[in-house]
Amino acid sequence: MKKQPQEHAPRSQQKKRHPVLWIILSLLLIGFIFCAVNVIRALMQPTSVFAKNAATPIPESTVMAPAFPIATTTPDPDAPTADPANASPATPEPAVPVSAAPTIPEADMSNRLNVMLMGIDAKENGGTTSGSMPHTDVMMVIAINFDENTVDLITLPRDTLTTAPGHYGYYKLNGVFNVGLGGWKKPTGQANDLADGFLLTCRAAEQWLGGISIPYYYAVDFQAVINIVDAIGGIDYDVDQQFNAFNSNKTYHTGMQHLDGDAVMGYLRIRNGADGLDSSRTARQRKMMVAIFNKLKSEGTLSTIPSLITAANSGIYTNTTLIQTTSLASYATKLNTDSIRTRSMFGEISDIEYDWRYVYVDQQNRIDLIREVFGIEVGPVGTCTRQYERWLHTVGFTAMKYMRQAEKVLNHVQEKKDAGETFTDEQIALYSDCYMAYTALREGFDQATDRLAARYAAAPWREKKNSQKSWTAENKAADQELTALEAEIKQNINGLQTAVKETTLRLAESIDHRYLTWTLSTKWYMDQDINEVIVAFG
């Protein structure tokens, strides 16, 4: 059988394919060049791949809008009648004291970068070594100044008494992570599950840095730290006190030791010999960070940091991109150890007076630290004092409880109105009375916080127990004046609370709303009328 000649496409059709191929190759080449230029720019200019730092506005406490127009003055008979149906919807906001908001800085932060490093007290399976929830027990701000080629490692005490932006209540700083997660016990398996907790921790830390932005974070759990240290071959370290490895009973003595991942984790978690503020432990954490940096730099392996993160496999969470991490690793190769400064926002810790131990940040140290690192002036945060905590327990928490009950009933009216229910003139009048009493208490609470926090911040000597014998005549006079102010505020708040309870109960009865409670729970931090999110530390 004669073989048929193979048919070929006309030469003109073959030529037509070449332009398409060249177009594809050209686009690929352009894309490659674009990526290469971006990588080079990222390595040469780290700030080019990061968003510009900016001051972070701190949300202020605002009062919910009324469901019906509120007549606060004698009505004008000639004025047009407002339509209740067009009233603004209720938008309750947390009762967070306005005075907790720091001064927003005006300094230029464009060539700086702040990154939060968090260590999570969690294991691979989501469990924790202490308590029923994993917390961010290590919080260190890495403040990079690209103009001066310096890095400041700033430790924030985990037990700091703080507020959580956007949520009412008072928490420990390491529990803000849990507030961001809704208080649930979540495993550390999915980065997206935990992002809200990490971001809220950054927002809370921004308050303590005077509003300086912390847009990026890295977080690691126990196993990730162990894996990273093992991946770099361990650390030779001069141990300052005896300890046991994390996952074994192997003992390490003082002096120069070679530490693997389990040993480093055991060393970082030493409590024995530490003072009550955890400052010894946080100092060890900062020193270990520098030791790891020195090893990577001496071996010329700082550029391998992105691959180390990948090698850890799990337990590392970040909102940075690979090119951003690579850029930071490249920048680190240009740093000397002398340009890395370690700092701590330390303070005084309370005794177990109200169930948990809290750190009350030394405000002068905080002010000095922010000035030295960022070049801005901020004021003290008077709500982070023993005196303010005591005021909360004697007056403030009860006021918050009463406000919550009023909010429940006022919001219930709003829900009924939104559903199309109509209200009688009498009910609208009762609503107006309740709303006015509620707003008066809210304003009274905020004003009291402002006045007292400012005074408490200016009188640290007053926090010392059994120190009256050393008070000067000026101290004694100031104490008498402040005691009189506290009594005046307490009397005023008590009167406002009485009005809230009476008007709330009348309104609740008229709309058949039940289940109000006016008594604080035995453990205030387990009362959701005080702390919006329940965080368990035990």
Helix content percent band: 40-55%
| Overall form | globular
Low-confidence stretches: 26-44, 73-77, 79-104
The beta-strand count equals 14
Number of DSSP helices? 12
Order of helices and strands: HEEEEEHHEHEEEEHHHEHEEEHHHH
Main beta sheet: 6 strands, mixed
Explain what the structure shows.
The protein is of the alpha+beta class and 538 residues long. The protein folds into 2 domains: 98-379, LCP protein (Aminopeptidase), CATH 3.40.630.190; 387-526. The protein has helices at residues 11-44, 176-180, 191-208, 222-231, 261-268, 279-298, 305-311, 322-332, 363-374, 386-418, 425-457, 473-510; strands at residues 112-120, 136-145, 150-155, 161-164, 167-172, 216-221, 235-239, 243-244, 251-252, 255-259, 316-318, 340-344, 347-349, 359-361. Strand 4 and strand 5 (167-172) form a beta hairpin. The longest helix is centred in the last third of the chain and has 38 residues, at 473-510. The chain is globular and about 80 Å long. 36% of the residues are buried. Mean pLDDT is 80; it is low at 26-44, 73-77 and 79-104.
Fold blueprint:
Elements: H1 11-44, E1 112-120, E2 136-145, E3 150-155, E4 161-164, E5 167-172, H2 176-180, H3 191-208, E6 216-221, H4 222-231, E7 235-239, E8 243-244, E9 251-252, E10 255-259, H5 261-268, H6 279-298, H7 305-311, E11 316-318, H8 322-332, E12 340-344, E13 347-349, E14 359-361, H9 363-374, H10 386-418, H11 425-457, H12 473-510
Parallel strand pairs: 1-6, 3-12
Antiparallel strand pairs: 1-2, 2-3, 4-5, 6-11, 7-10, 8-9, 13-14
Helix pairs in contact: 1-8, 4-5, 10-11, 10-12, 11-12
